[in-house]
Amino acid sequence: MSRACELTGKAVLTGNNVSHANNKTRRRFLPNLCHVTLQSEALNQNVRLRVSANALRSVEHRGGLDAFLVKAKDNELSQRARLLKRQVEKKLAEQQAA
């Protein structure tokens, strides 16, 4: 399991620890990932994802998981999230046609 957010694609960054004596050693900046259960209104089911705390704020800001997925770019999403996005779009299209 990679250390990357399934919704925003936020992943590990690298950099340096710099001491007072200006010694540099490599380090990793890890994203703040949480296991979260989000509810999809279109699919009427709960979805368990591993997302960053920042992504949770974005999901709330956009009005829920379905709205976030519809607006998100496919290359940022994980494979599971892309599958979920296609299911949501299909279900919303069915609701629009009815």
UniProtKB/TrEMBL annotation:
Q: Which GO terms describe its cellular component?
A: cytosolic large ribosomal subunit
Its Gene Ontology molecular function terms?
Answer: structural constituent of ribosome
| A biological process from GO | translation
Decide whether keyword Secreted is in the record. no
Q: Which InterPro entries match?
A: Ribosomal_bL28 (IPR026569), Ribosomal_bL28/bL31-like_sf (IPR034704), Ribosomal_bL28_bact-type (IPR001383), Ribosomal_bL28_sf (IPR037147)
Which superkingdom? Bacteria
UniProt keyword terms in alphabetical order = Ribonucleoprotein, Ribosomal protein
Q: Does the keyword Calcium apply?
A: no
| UniProt record similarity statement | Belongs to the bacterial ribosomal protein bL28 family.
- What protein is this chain from? Large ribosomal subunit protein bL28
Organism encoding this protein:
Nitratireductor pacificus pht-3B
